[in-house]
Amino acid sequence: MIPSKLVEAIRDAQHVCVVTGAGISAESGIPTFREAQQGLWEKHRPEDLATPEAFSRDPDFVWQWYRWRRQLVSKVAPNAAHVAIASLADTVKTLTLITQNVDGLHQRAGSRDVIEFHGNLFVNRCFVEGVIVDVDDDIETAPYCPACAARVRPGVVWFGEGIPADAIQRSLAAAAGCDVFLAVGTSSQVYPAAGLAELAQDNGACAAEFNLEPTPLSSQFDHCVIGKAGTTLPELVELVS
Ligand code: BJW
User: Fold this and answer.
1) Can you name the residues that pair with 153 across neighbouring β-strands?
2) Residues with active-site annotation
3) pLDDT of 154-168, one tens digit each?
């Protein structure tokens, strides 16, 4: 059930800011972070793989996890929730889309100018210098940087690493300047992304959460819509249009 006050707020909004997390890609067949992982990875906590320390310790093991995820993402398609956000952007005056996901599914659904808060699975960087490198990434072991021979890592943001400067600046500005803030399919446990909703509310925005279940921040949102994003977001877009 979509609250009518939320529909009205979106209709009246000059600027809607949307932050998405792994839950929006779940209906495409991509496992979320804090759900049980599949097969080889089920014994490993993603938090233990998504760190520079884990890569330093065993680059090939971490590389194989990301290679498995690249292969998985390549086989799936955007779902109704990704499509709904792309069409919401055509309905409202300004929409800023910030995604914590690294899978590129928003872009494949037609969203433009997506802010990739935690990087992109299909970009590779030198582990030492951080520069983007063009390497064959469909191999079992972490490649070597063509310039300095350090190992090559996925171009994503791991725990303890800073958010890309352009992404954080644009996201802070969008959250502080929007009238409506939507958090979709995120457990709201990872910062600074989870703090954007509070920033938006502190600056007067109406904030709503779309999730399968309540999160640690649910009580702080103005509205919580429980359900699958692939169902609730198309409903929202239909009501707003
Ligand atoms: C559905 C659904 C359906 C399912 N429909 N819903 C403040 C307080 C405390 C700690 C910190 C703090 N500030 C920073 C920290 C430390 C840390 C942090 O947050 N730790 C917490 C865990 C406590 N943050 C960082 O380290 C960040 N860096 C930083 O702060 O740097 C400072 C710095 C500055 C300058 C120099 C150096 C440093 C970086 C965080 C990076 C996170 N990286 C990862 C991996 C990315 C690469 C990869 O993909 O492998 O990002 S971890 C992982 O978590 C990934 C995700 O983007 C992120 C968020 O997860 P998400 O998307 O919320 O997924 P889930 O699985 O948790 O939730 C899915 C949700 O969907 C669930 O709620 C389901 O119910 C729901 N769902 N199906 C709707 N169909």
Assistant:
1) 125
2) 118
3) 999 999 999 999 999
